[in-house]
Each structure stands twice: as C-alpha cells, then as structure tokens.
Amino acid sequence: RANTPQKKFSRKKVRKKHPYTSKSIVIEIFCIADDFCAEYENEIRNHQLQAGDITKRRNRKTQMSQSEIIAVMVCFHCGTFHNFKNYYLFYICKHMKSYFPNAVSYNRFVELQPRVIVPFMLLLKLFGFGECTGITYVDSTPIKVCHNKRIHSNKVFRDLAQRGKSTMGWFFGFKLHLVCNEKGELLNFSLTKGNVDDRNPDVINVLTKDLFGKLYADKGYISTKLFEMLFDQGVHLVTGIRSNMKNSLMSFRDKILLRKRSVIESINDELKNICQIEHSRHRSTHNFIMNIIAALVAYCFFPKKPSIKFEVEKSSQLTIWG
Hints:
Elements: H1 23-46, H2 66-78, H3 84-92, H4 106-112, H5 117-128, E1 135-144, E2 162-166, E3 169-181, E4 186-193, H6 201-207, E5 213-216, H7 224-232, E6 235-238, H8 252-259, H9 262-273, H10 285-300, E7 312-314, E8 319-321
Parallel strand pairs: 1-5, 5-6
Antiparallel strand pairs: 1-3, 2-3, 3-4, 7-8
C-alpha cells in the first residue's frame, strides 16, 4: 500500500467562460461593424463638401480603425470583465493580439472613443432595435454615477446629473427609459436626468414615436392626460391601479400580459449586471455616453433574451392564451 502511487488532486478553480465572449461572437461583431463602417464612410465621402485649393485638411486614418474600436467596446460589455482598463491591457493587448494587431495604448484608445459615437448610434438604430409587434413594455431604471455620500465631491457630472428617487431610494445620476417588445428586443431608449418624471410628455413622445397597439407599464405611469395623449396616437396604455383608486374593467389578456412586465425588468438587470452599464469610474461625459451606447449594442447581440412564450388559439367561441 505504501508503494502504490497516490493521485494528486489539484484545487485550482477553473473560471468558466461567458457564453457571449467566444471567438465566433467576436468575429461576428467585428464583421457587422466593419461592413457598416465601410458603408458609413462611403456615404460621408459622397455627401462631404469639397474644400477649396487654399485650405487643406488632414484626413489621415487612425492606427486603429473605427470597426475595431466598436468591436472592442461591444465585446467588453458582452463578457465578465468589470474594469475596462484591465480588459484592454490584459485581454485585448495580450490574448486577442492576433485579432487586433493594431491595438494602440490604453490612453490613446480612450481618446479615440468619442470619434465613433455617431456610427455607434447609427449601428444601434439600424441593426440593434427590433420591430413593434403591438405588445410593448416601458420602464425606467436609475443610472447612478456616484455614491450619495460623494455627491458634493463629484466634478464630472456636477452640472448634468441630478438627484432622483426610485423604488430603491434616492440616487444621483440619470434615468434610462427603455421600450421593448414581448421578444425582449429593444425598440427605443431615452436618457434623462435623475429628477425627470417617467410621465414627461417629451420622453414619452420619443419612446412611442413608431409604436402601436398596447403599451404595458407600472403604476408610476398612471396619468389621465398621458392615457388620452397616447390613445390619440393609436397606443393603448395599460397600467395597474393603486389601492385608493376605483377598480376598472380589464380584459383577461391584458391582465396576463401586465403580469409579464418582468421582461423589461430582466433587461434592466442584464444591462446592469452583465453589460456593466452602471459604474462610478467615469472620467468624462463622452465616455459615459459611449459606455451606455456600447452596453445597449452588446445586449442586442445576445443570442438569448428574456421573452414571453405564448400561443394564440382562435376559435368562434373563445381565445386561449397559454
């Protein structure tokens, strides 16, 4: 028994890879971004005003292309990293060097981020958003920029962010308003200050610009004026009632779909816990906007989204939802 070799068990913890950070996903994101940037540059070149012979402008391309910058930022929000600096230095510049051979320094990459904000927004608008199916959900989530104890010492968002109150208490920052369908696809978004009401007509007009059918919301959207305004636009607002309100008739279908508001709440949870849309390490407002846009684009590339599975069986007697 003493001469028998003993097995050695290693206690090293193997870190599981996130399903959205595989190399195939990186290649897919880069190909979509590269094709879109090529068409975008051609359109800009065709509609650009030609300067005279006297004034000469430099049009030299950067070492890292716009498609590479977009792919790096989207892949960060698809993975398990919480710090972008560590992700760029120890993952992109080392392990992904073959995919990004022209990677610049971290400081230079931060300087190049605001240059792709316009194609980033167009990419989100054209390829990220889904189509309205007649069943939509609306909700808002707070985006904190710092802890409440450090509000007076915050300099980056001193003139932009405001104090607001949500179901989780007071916060200092912004509000992200989202609209999605029953498939979990984003339809539109709006970013406002933290003290803006969810029933603000300007915000609602932006979110419901191309919507039709039923719009399901929580009790924070209860408003007679808002209901009438949306009804004139062809959108039926469906909300719950408070304890001090009179009961109103509601169809069985609306009651079931109103209970499925967890779809948009799950989207907010994934944006904060997976895409890292909220953190307190921002050093400029441009990078704050880029972080939100990149997180929304990354969510649109998720192969699995929270959705509602139901079947409609129509007959001459009744309609069954299950």
